[in-house]
Design brief:
- With 376 residues, the protein is of the alpha+beta class.
- 22% of the residues lie in helices and 35% in strands.
- It contains 6 helices and 21 strands.
- It has a 5-stranded antiparallel sheet, with helices on one face. Strands 18-16-15-20-21 form a 5-stranded mixed sheet, sandwiched between helices. It has a 4-stranded antiparallel sheet with strand order 2-4-8-6, with no helix packed on it.
- Helix 1 packs antiparallel against helix 2 and helix 4 packs antiparallel against helix 5.
- The radius of gyration is 32 Å and the shape is elongated.
- The protein starts with a strand and ends with a strand.
Length: 376
């Protein structure tokens, strides 16, 4: 991991203050001049010990490899991950180490019988060419894009008189929005064909047959495979793949969650709905796009993902939603209108808003509004 800073400082001790060392040297000279050799020898011993400790501390961080990692670094809320700190002493001189890793409210230690800690602390005396690995379990509390505070490593000499500090940044942790089954969203797959509701299976393409299954009365008779049914002496129906013509664009209007005040819980629910729709589309091989007029953390731009069925589309969408902050500078209607020229014909646009708010996209067809909570 990247080393973001290194500094050296002395412990608060009479022996470690430069002025005291100079005073000891003056006393030593006076003792020698007056031929007080026994006290002079004691002073020389103290000076040698202190200087040896200082040099030991100075080289303690040399040839010391420190690797801090978090795996998995992409997860969903309430899932756990592991923070691992690996320290390798690649020199002949031992080093006295301690480390501190502070936590944040969104990334906390897994609850145990003991009181939950606000930081992880460790101590180890590493011998020559020795190594130490420490692992800590933490849980993601909510959606977001996070970095734990820097890892602080302190290296001391064997007497603990001097210390040097190294500070290392931590990798980012991406916590996706919660994924919910589409039936919990009160939105049927058959609704996703736009302005009209159709109770037929999701836009089946009669040319693309995925297999056969037992026929049930709720299925259209045109799905019956008569030849296969005759050979099996039982009614069998064709299993059809969803039509390649179905495409959806998922949008969230963050502006409706910012006025008059920021409303965090409905906003998180809106992102959960968006993520759930994207997840459903990916599982059903339905190309989808994503447009959100909020800013992404560390990117400082809205989410504009063209409609695509690429394998990495879902991971990119979930990461973008994880980075999203409850801020807005652009109108969702403007973003949709700018991107609408690239929409394939028949694309269904799902607009997720707070309450009864409606962005001005009346010029477009196949619009579905999904309301979260109530307007203030």
């Amino acid at each position: 991991m990247m080393n973001t800073g290194e500094q050296s400082h002395n412990r608060t001790s009479l022996y470690t203050m430069p002025l005291i060392r100079y005073i000891l040297l003056v006393i030593l000279v006076l003792l020698i001049i007056n031929m007080n050799f026994l006290p002079a020898g004691f002073i020389i011993f103290i000076i040698l010990i202190v200087e040896f400790a200082r040099i030991w501390s100075k080289i303690s961080l040399h040839n010391l490899e420190i690797v801090n990692s978090i795996f998995p670094s992409r997860l969903f809320p309430d899932e756990e991950t592991t923070l691992k700190i690996e320290i390798y002493n690649k020199k002949h001189i031992p080093v006295n180490l301690s480390w501190t890793q502070a936590l944040i409210p969104q990334m906390q230690e897994i609850q145990t019988e003991e009181r939950k800690r606000s930081s992880f602390n460790g101590h180890k005396m590493l011998g020559r060419f020795d190594k130490n690995t420490s692992k800590y379990k933490i849980v993601a509390a909510k959606r977001g894009y996070y970095r734990l505070p820097p890892l602080v490593i302190e290296a001391k000499d064997g007497l603990g008189l001097f210390e040097k500090t190294k500070i290392l940044s931590n990798p980012a942790v991406i916590v996706y929005p919660r994924i919910r089954p589409i039936n919990e969203l009160e939105l049927n797959p058959s609704d996703l064909i736009g302005d009209r509701k159709d109770n037929r299976p999701l836009l089946p393409d009669p040319i693309r047959i995925a297999g056969l299954r037992d026929y049930t009365p709720d299925m259209p008779s045109r799905f019956i495979n008569w030849k296969a049914s005759a050979s099996k002496d039982d009614l069998l129906a064709k299993m059809l793949e969803p039509s390649a013509d179905l495409r959806i664009c998922i949008t969230v209007d963050t502006e409706t969650f910012c006025q008059p005040l920021q409303d965090v819980e409905p906003f998180e629910e809106a992102l959960s709905v968006a993520a759930s729709l994207a997840f459903w589309a990916d599982n059903n091989k339905v190309p989808f796009g994503l447009i959100v007029n909020g800013h992404q953390k560390e990117h400082n731009c809205p989410i504009v993902m063209p409609i695509s069925g690429a394998p990495d589309q879902i991971s990119l969408a979930l990461e973008a939603l994880a980075r999203l902050e409850l801020t807005t500078k652009l109108r969702l209607s403007d973003l949709i209108k700018m991107e609408s020229a690239t929409f394939p014909l028949g694309t269904t646009i799902i607009v997720i808003v707070k309450g009864t708010a409606r962005p001005d996209v009346s010029s477009l067809r196949n619009i579905i509004y999904y309301s979260i909570g109530k307007e203030d």
